[in-house]
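tool_call: predict_structure(chain=1)
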Amino acid sequence: MMLGQNSNSEQLAQMKHKYGFDQPILKQYLFYVNDLSPLSFHSNTEEDYTFFNTDNYNGIIIFKGSSFNVAFKSPYLRYSFARPGKRVSDILSETIPNTIFLALAAISIAIFLGIILGIAGALNHNSWIDRIIQVISTVGMSVPSFFSAIIFAWLFGYLWHDWTNLNMTGSLYEVDDFGERRSIALKNIILPAIVLGIRPLAVISQLMRNALLDVLDQDYIRTAKAKGLRPFQVIKNHALKNALNPVITAVSGWFASMLAGAVFVEFVFGWNGLGKEIVSALNTLDLPVIMGSVLTIALFFIIIQTVVDILYAWLDPKVKLD
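tool_result:
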């Protein structure tokens, strides 16, 4: 792929040697882990794949031996196969901010509306309001994101475009007809953010409703009501904080999964994010980009779950950090 169809066997052998593809699988794996590790070992021989090159690794040598060096560097995700000369880290740095911005917008919509609907459902338990919210939540959890993305794009971006002024496709930045000036187009985030937030909204509203119903049955809530506190004060000062634990769990999981789950939504709406980049990399068998994207998503999962564990200790004094 990188050499083109006119390459010969000698050029192919040189390319395999350059990237270490002529080595056994286990050795290739160790090379890749060495590339990712901040503290890594490198050969002094320029012909060897593990030769330390500051242009590739952006690091410094902290130990120089006779046959190998030890370097401290940033993770090296190698170069794209489909775009020779383009670093994977550069590709991710161009797309990840767009996906994070989309995920933040979607999860903000889901949290705000989900908590409101959950509280409304709990305070109107078994009423027609509660039943309508239950139906909306069930539908929201059942409809796949790729289907709802197509429906929303067709309805609001095409059929009702004259009223909504929204586009079927578009990213955070738009380029003028001359390809010179970039401008931020916030309206392009409305449809993908709503579609991406539908399922977490449905989950959050259900969890908030059920958790709040359990909390409202506790003795200290009945005591607060007996003291003459208004229902709003009881919910705000006593019940809401203790009912948020399962909601935070859902938010953390959904926000992390949005980085991967946004693939369909970004592809349908043409949003230039990590999900769309993964689809493009899969179509072109661009393995370094695929692996770099998966590792990045996994890193976000770890960071978000760690933050959630810390939040648990703040919300619930019974949870202690060890």
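agent: The beta strands are 39-43, 59-64, 68-73, 173-175, 182-184. Proceeding to next step.
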